[in-house]
Design a protein that fits this description.
- The chain has 207 residues and is of the alpha+beta class.
- It has 2 domains: 8-70, lambda repressor-like DNA-binding domains (434 Repressor (Amino-terminal Domain)); 86-204, Umud Fragment, subunit A (Ribbon), CATH 2.10.109.
- The chain contains 5 helices and 9 strands; from the N terminus they run αααααβββββββββ.
- Strands 2-1-3-4-9-5-6-7-8 form a 9-stranded mixed beta sheet, with no helix packed on it.
Length: 207
Amino acid sequence: MTNSIGNKEIMSSNLKRLMNERNLSQAELSRRLGFKTSTLGDWISGKSYPRIDKIEKMANYFNVEKSALIEPYKSQNNFYHEVIQIPLIGEIACGEPITAIENVETYMPAPAFTTPSGNNFYLRAKGDSMKPTINDKSLVLIHEQPNVEDGEIAAVLIDGDATLKRVKHQGKTVILMPDNNQYNPIVLTDDIDARILGKAVQVVNSL
């Protein structure tokens, strides 16, 4: 019987699956983990196998056991995955951490297996400026981070109010773009108090 430990093909398959589940590119994952893009590419393609410390770092990032990388994949239907509680943020108090108790409306269950590691929270979308991508009253899972890549959707705090918009960079200028062309972009000038709260990674549409 073939030993799964050190199996480059299994590692390759698991890495591709985990990256696809989180909509991560090779370049983005290498940047976040501090790995060389070419080295990560060799693991993804099955050309080489990472050292144990690298496996541990990837497992921690994906919030999975090391076995999820080095052993053959088992469907979620075949075994239990931990469920974690993620805060749903209501009104955001200026000066308070995003997930401070004053801001938390309730907690929502989510599978740990598909939730990015680090701080996460849900926001409830207001309005239709991001239709058809995000509908009014949909719950949007936000991974807390201070910056996002060009074209990604972010939760942005503007004068104490959170908004969901697609971020576009033009030189040093940041423009918040709606997906609904009936709304105008927002240009973040120096006189606007704004900061990125995090990246939108998942949408739970309301019925």
